[in-house]
Amino acid sequence: MITGITVNQVYLVSGVTDMRKATNGLSLIVSEQLEHNPFDGSVFVFCNRQRDKLKILYWERNGFWLYYRTLEKGKFQWPMEKEQPTLSLTLRELQWLLDGLSCTQHHAHPEIHGLETTKKVPLDAH
Predict the structure, then answer these.
(1) Pairing of strands 63-70, 53-60
(2) Is residue 55 assigned to a domain?
(3) What is the rounded CA–CA span in Å between residue 54 and residue 47?
(4) How far apart are CA 82 and CA 45, in angstroms?
(5) Does the CA dihedral 58-77-91-99 come out positive or negative?
(6) Residue pLDDT, tens place only, 72-99
(7) Whole-model pTM?
(8) How many domains does the chain fold into?
(9) 103 in any annotated domain
C-alpha cells in the first residue's frame, strides 16, 4: 500500500474508468467531471469495468504519482453508484478495498480515540 505520504482525503471515483488514461486524463476527470482540485494532496482511486484493475492518482510537490494495481484473480468490491460520483474514504477503508474487502466493513474493530485510565494505582501497591 501507499506509505509515507501525507493525504488530505481519499476519493473513490464510483463507476468505471478507461484504464488507458494516464495522469493528464485522470486529472482532467478529477477537475472537470468531479469538480475537485487534483493538486490538493488528495488521493483519487479509479477502477476498470472488469473490476480487476485500479489506478490511484496523487499529487506530491512537483508531480503526479500514478499507482497501478492489477489482480491476477478476483475482483475489487467496487461501488457502481451513479448518483454519487465520488465516495470519501479513510486510508483504512482504502486498504480494505485493496485487500479485496468491501470498503464499508461492518465487522471491523472500531477505532478508539482518547483512551484514558479510570483508576490510578499507586506505585508501591502490589
Answers:
(1) antiparallel
(2) yes
(3) 5
(4) 16
(5) negative
(6) 888 888 877 666 778 888 888 888 888 8
(7) 0.76
(8) 1
(9) no
**Model confidence pLDDT, tens digit, residues 15-38:** 889 999 999 999 999 999 889 999
Q: Rg of the Cα trace of the chain?
A: 19
Q: How many residues are given for the chain?
A: 126
The pLDDT value recorded for residue 30 is: 94
Residue with cell 484504464: 19
**CA nearest 47: which of 59, 37, 56?**
56
Q: Is 54 helix (H, G, I), strand (E, B) or coil?
A: strand
Domain extent at residue 16: 10-98
The answer to whether residue 114 is domain-embedded is no
Q: Residue 114 and residue 97: Cα distance in Å, rounded? A: 27
DSSP character at residue 38: T
Residue 72 identity (one-letter amino acid): E
Closest CA to 53 of 91, 26, 17, 22: 17
- List 67's β-bridge partners, or say none: 56
- Tell me if 109 is assigned to some domain: no
Under a CB-based contact definition with an 8 Å cutoff, are residues 86 and 57 in contact? no
